[in-house]
């Protein structure tokens, strides 16, 4: 998932290759054991590998900073990565449904012994990753640890089912678990997709009360009104703000500077990379006309 990115390229590179190798083992193992549950977990890990690979690739890009073609730099490229990831997971999920649903009516017995070995490997690999990351303080590390913990639980579920299958002939358990895991993958895709879409559509970043922000700016002394007020996010972490402020025609240079400082003070809590404040005098016409008044 997109939250797998870390700030050290070396870690990402290692995590990417480990994940990719493990994903390939799972795909081959899933085919050999004829288990849809294993294939579903493989799809999940393919999604993880993809987002790790893309963030590894994009980290090199984002370091390039801005240039004459991309004046905001390459931060928004991570949105593209998240979108590609969602599409891959949706296509993969559809494939799994077309394979697993018919098996509900026509159960095929998977190789339980092989499944147990793959599940133990899955618990060990993901468990080791949780162990390595535990105690991380950053939000990112916490989200990542939680995600890996879910991965471990997914493999524990496969382990339990394969142990049952070893002793009891209930082959329907495999497609049932497969569908469960895939629904869980899709649930996460929807959550990530929503976030990505609101970033693409330049929504106000989560947790910011835009109305009260505007109100506070309008209450600053000498501020007549504001318009063209925009707050958006580049990638969910780096935000940008711009506004036009109308002041009395005799406002002095010092007063304008104070107004700007006060606005920046109001914006203080928000992680802003770009702030643009245009000052307009009452008798001055706004240079940028917009169809909608705001
Ligand atoms: Zn995962
Ligand atoms: Zn505007
Ligand atoms: Zn800027
Ligand atoms: Zn204006």
Automatic annotation (TrEMBL):
Membrane topology of the entry: Multi-pass membrane protein
Keyword Nucleotide-binding: no
Record key words, sorted: Ion transport, Membrane, Transmembrane, Transmembrane helix, Transport
Subcellular location: Membrane
An example Gene Ontology CC term for this record: plasma membrane
Pfam families recorded: Cation_efflux (PF01545), ZT_dimer (PF16916)
Domain Cation efflux protein transmembrane residue range list: 13-199
Highest taxon in the source lineage: Bacteria
Similarity comment text for this entry: Belongs to the cation diffusion facilitator (CDF) transporter (TC 2.A.4) family. SLC30A subfamily.
Protein name, UniProt field: Cation diffusion facilitator family transporter
Organism: Pontibacillus yanchengensis
